[in-house]
Design a protein that fits this description.
Structural class: alpha+beta
Distance between the termini: 29 Å
Helix content: 10-25%
CATH topology: Trna Endonuclease, Chain: A, domain 1
CATH class: Alpha Beta
Strand order of the largest sheet: 2-4-5
Number of domains: 1
């Protein structure tokens, strides 16, 4: 059975002075990190020297469609473990309990 993770109401993303996230990954892929809690984000290596930006899932989706459209994956760290989610999966994710 594959474990799935639902993204939280608030996501924390380390960004630089220009509000750009730290990008990493193998050639041909661009990965950013998003965290489910502020403390874990603050303690992460990606956050050193960065500002921590709090985003709603909808805000992250908007950035992935626009300014951060070159991002191919989001390394989501809800707590003590992390998940790699594809950009398309993030864009298709709807908040639980929200009806169309």
């Amino acid at each position: 059975m594959v474990e799935t993770s639902t993204m939280g109401d608030v996501l924390y993303v380390p960004v630089d002075d220009h509000s750009e996230p730290y990008r990493w990954g193998p050639e041909g892929e661009v990965t950013i990190s998003a965290f489910g809690d502020f403390w874990r984000c603050w303690r992460s290596p990606e956050s050193k020297g960065k500002v921590i930006r709090a985003l709603a899932l909808e805000d992250l989706q908007e950035l992935l469609r626009g300014r951060w459209s070159n991002v191919t994956e989001v390394a989501y760290h809800p707590g003590s473990s992390g998940y790699i989610k594809g950009r398309d999966e993030i864009l298709e994710t709807a908040k639980e309990g929200v009806a169309d």
